[in-house]
Write a structure and sequence with these properties.
The protein is built from six helices and five strands. The protein is an alpha/beta fold. Helix 2 links the parallel strand 1 and strand 2. The chain has a five-stranded mixed beta sheet, with helices on both faces. The protein is globular.
Length: 171
């Protein structure tokens, strides 16, 4: 993974955490699909960094714009208008939409946030990232975190957190 995409202090941790997730997916006989916005495919890239990851990684969808969230993942226009792209409602729909596309996936993770340096507000500051997780035949969850640092740091921390969330959903 090129160092320019990651903060150097957590890049090794990202590689290790992605390997840990792959092993957890194998043990659970699960398959993952990602739906990413602010991380731009970083989670999928981390997973596919490892040889043999295709046995448990179905793929990744980068839906950066609202129109892509709608047309690819089925996020409702009303959801985006009422709650915005960076919201619990949107990441839930993203996670569900990803499972709808990847028929063999058992789990999905979605990410949408404000990586900065601009784009934040009082209600939704720079560093706010929402995560959605879905399990086929199970529930869809959403939670938020606020990360500190520049754009690269926020994206790296968000990817790290997403990897950990999926491991939690496998337990």
């Amino acid at each position: 993974m090129p160092a320019s995409l990651l903060t150097s202090d957590i890049s090794a941790e990202l590689i290790q955490r992605s390997a840990t997730l792959l092993e957890a997916l194998r043990r659970a006989e699960a398959k993952l699909v990602t739906a990413e916005s602010c991380t731009g495919g970083l989670v999928a890239a981390l997973l596919t960094h490892h040889a043999g990851s295709s046995d448990v990684t179905e793929g990744g969808l980068v839906t950066y714009s609202n129109s892509m969230k709608q047309s690819v993942l089925g996020v409702q226009a009303d959801t985006l208008q009422q709650f915005g792209a960076v919201s619990a409602e949107t990441v839930r729909e993203m996670a569900s939409g990803a499972l709808g596309i990847a028929q063999d996936a058992t789990h999905s993770v979605s990410i949408s946030g404000i990586a900065g340096p601009g784009g934040g507000s009082v209600e939704k500051p720079v560093g706010l990232v929402w995560f959605g997780t879905a399990v086929r035949g199970g529930d869809v969850r959403a939670e938020a975190r606020i990360f500190k640092g520049d754009r690269t740091a926020v994206r790296s921390q968000a990817a790290l957190y997403a990897l950990a969330l999926v491991v939690q959903r496998l337990d």
